[in-house]
Amino acid sequence: MATKIEKSDEEWRAILSREQFRVIREKGTERAGTGAYDKLYDEGVYHCAACNTPLYKSTTKFNSGCGWPAFFDALPGAVTRHVDNAWGMERIEIVCTACGGHLGHVFKGEKFDTPTDERHCVNSVSLTFTDTDGTVKPQ
Ligand SMILES: [Zn+2]
């Protein structure tokens, strides 16, 4: 099981880009269609951009057309859900279990043709993709 990673804002700022800090630590959202991994379908694993914990396999990624990377399931235990009542809507926020970094939200019952009928809508900047050779694909 992943260990809890705790850092101060200053420490996170030192390792994350401005945009990553805004999204991951301040629960921001990148602009739709701007993420480097939105249309990426190479085989590999998506890690947390903040702490490098593996979160999603490419085999669970699908094209939702929503403008952000979409997955129908996470690696077991890698992602933790919280109810988010921001903006007057009840949504399910997903964070990296290991470091608490904001990933995005889970939407259910949208009838995408996936095994779970869930869409993990994840900010591309919250992820680091590594292909099967271990090569990191840059943002
Ligand atoms: Zn993390």
Automatic annotation (TrEMBL):
<dbReference type="InterPro" id="IPR002579">
    <property type="entry name" value="Met_Sox_Rdtase_MsrB_dom"/>
</dbReference>
<feature type="domain" description="MsrB">
    <location>
        <begin position="9"/>
        <end position="132"/>
    </location>
</feature>
<protein>
    <recommendedName>
        <fullName>Peptide-methionine (R)-S-oxide reductase</fullName>
        <ecNumber>1.8.4.12</ecNumber>
    </recommendedName>
</protein>
<keyword id="KW-0862">Zinc</keyword>
<keyword id="KW-0479">Metal-binding</keyword>
<dbReference type="GO" id="GO:0006979">
    <property type="term" value="P:response to oxidative stress"/>
</dbReference>
<dbReference type="InterPro" id="IPR028427">
    <property type="entry name" value="Met_Sox_Rdtase_MsrB"/>
</dbReference>
<keyword id="KW-0560">Oxidoreductase</keyword>
<dbReference type="InterPro" id="IPR011057">
    <property type="entry name" value="Mss4-like_sf"/>
</dbReference>
<dbReference type="GO" id="GO:0033743">
    <property type="term" value="F:peptide-methionine (R)-S-oxide reductase activity"/>
</dbReference>
<dbReference type="GO" id="GO:0030091">
    <property type="term" value="P:protein repair"/>
</dbReference>
<dbReference type="GO" id="GO:0046872">
    <property type="term" value="F:metal ion binding"/>
</dbReference>
<dbReference type="Pfam" id="PF01641">
    <property type="entry name" value="SelR"/>
</dbReference>
<comment type="similarity">
    <text>Belongs to the MsrB Met sulfoxide reductase family.</text>
</comment>
